[in-house]
Every structure is written in structure tokens, then in C-alpha cells.
């Protein structure tokens, strides 16, 4: 069972909520962030990617960037663009995209639950990315972005959340990136807070990282550093927990996470594919896989359907994922791409950009071949995490994205 706790959220003045809220730091490159921030002085990117306020030649990992982030956070609070609640609350965060809604409970989760494996992961992290967020959280003395967690649905929790939404008015409601509607409620009744805390402690076996593995590792490591710095702190010190948004898995959607490759294509490439796939020529019309074990391929202006042969489907939870089959049957043996995290010949295109983006990249000559994937399912994610195994990198793309800047968790209380 898992521990959650309320917190005194630092959040936008309602007059500025839409202007402050930004896409997460890790889905924008520095130039994209610089453009958005230059047009909007309220943008949370001034805190989350503070290099946008420094010279273009500045490294995003220079110490001055983290100090600038901390200074900007203080300035936002001083100007009352961001304010801190005087009491500890839970919050609800509903995102609606293309007519589909998902509601998350905004809480603080326990670093001890993560250490004990009650908050489960399905990806490895990269040290340099961890270090970036460790330095950012350390400098700001706050969890500056929430972790996107999921759990197996609980009817009682669902009913309580739905009832609260029905009986209360959201404090923010606005439409932002990709026509997503964002709504926030404050849960400020002690009885409701206690009920939710108890339900998670008694009825929810585990939480699962959906998105934000680097942020989770970083938050936990900052918490451990604080424990060493303040050995006499109370168990409920803020640094012993980290900011999270918890969604029931049944409400979530994983989009396709597609691959584009820049390698020479050998004349016998299609024949090599036929060893593991049934290869069907589709033509010039975009082919989007409609089921598992089916992959779309765009090569030289033509789409193909690759259907995995039954004998090429492993039984292992990880190896049988479509992204693993592509890796093990195509990327490694035919292209020599062993590590997709570091190999410069491969890139990834989130499903929100559409398959036309794959065509554009190949037609422009930037890449030679593209693969359109059927999305990994939520149940596959949970099964892999429960087994203690790790998915290949870039296996999941969640939409809609949680915006940053709507909640900050202050670590300063010892």
C-alpha cells in the first residue's frame, strides 16, 4: 500500500494561470522554449528552462542557469504571479483532449515508497538528465514539475473524485497547447483529505511511473541529500516526499512513439524483412497500424505493412513488445543500431505529430526510412513494471501532457 500526503501548493494567481502554464521542459528544445518565453513574460519556462533568459551561447547545464531558475521563481512569487496556499490541500487536475477526459489527484508521494519498490518504474534513466533536474530542484528548493503516476482503478476513489468535481467549481479552467482543456479543483476539506489518504494506504497496492522517470529519480536523490543535511528532521519533512499527479490507468491513453532512421538501405532489405515479417506494399496512402504486431514502414515514398510472423513473437513480457520486436528483428541485425539512446542514426517522433511528420522527414532526405508503431498498452506497461523489468527507451508517449507551473511543492520545511 502507498503513502500520499497533502501539501501547501505554490500555484498561479488565477488571473495568470493560462499564461504561466507551459509544456514540460523535456518536450521542448531550448530554441522552441526561447520563442515561447520571449513572447510571454509569465511563462513558467522562465523557471523550468531558465536558459531562455540567458545568452544563446550559454550551456543549458551551466550553474548560472539553475541560479537564474531560483531567482525567477522568487520573482514570480514576489510579484504574486505565483502564491502559496496557507493550508495543506489535495488538488484535482482534469485534462480533456478530443472529447476524452482524465482526472488526476495531485499529491505528494513518499520517497521511501519509491525506494521500497511501491512506486514502480519501467524505464532506465540517463545520469546527465538526472543531474540536470537534481541541480534544478536543489537550486529552487522545490519540486518544480509533477511526476505523472498511474494506478489500477479503485471505484471508491473514482466516486469520491467525481462527486467532488460535481459539487465544486474549478479554480482554473482554460484551453492551451493542442486544444487541451485544463481544469483544477482544490480539495480543502479535512474529512475528504483524510478519506483519500486512508484509501491509498489501505486499497492501492502500488503506483507506476507513466511519465517522468528522470524527475522521479532526481526528486528522490534530492530528498536523500536533504536527509543527510538535516538528520534530525521530522518524518513528515517536505523533502521526504515529491510532487505527483495520480491517474487511474483506465483513463489514460498511450500514443504511438515512432522511429525514423538515417542509414543506407541495402538492395535486399525487403527480402531480409520477410524472414520475420509478412511484408505488404500499401502504396502512397499513410498506413497507421490498427493492432499489435503490425508495424507501418515508409520507404522511398511508399508505405508498407509489416506483420510479425507468429514464430517471431517471443513470450517474454518485454521482448514481445512491438518496439522490442522492431529493435531485435530490424534495428540491430539489419542496421547495426544497438543502443537507441545514444545512436545518432535514430530519432523518435511522438504520435501527437502525426504520421505525416514521418513522411516529411523521409521525403526531405533527413532520414531514409520510418517506422509507425502501434502504441504500447497501459496493461503492458503495468505488467512489465510488476515483473521488475525495463521497457526499451521511447516505448510510450502519453497525451495530453501535464502542464508545468500549475503546482510547485516547496521543500523548505524541515
UniProtKB/TrEMBL annotation:
<dbReference type="InterPro" id="IPR008323">
    <property type="entry name" value="UCP033563"/>
</dbReference>
<dbReference type="Pfam" id="PF06245">
    <property type="entry name" value="DUF1015"/>
</dbReference>
<protein>
    <recommendedName>
        <fullName>DUF1015 domain-containing protein</fullName>
    </recommendedName>
</protein>
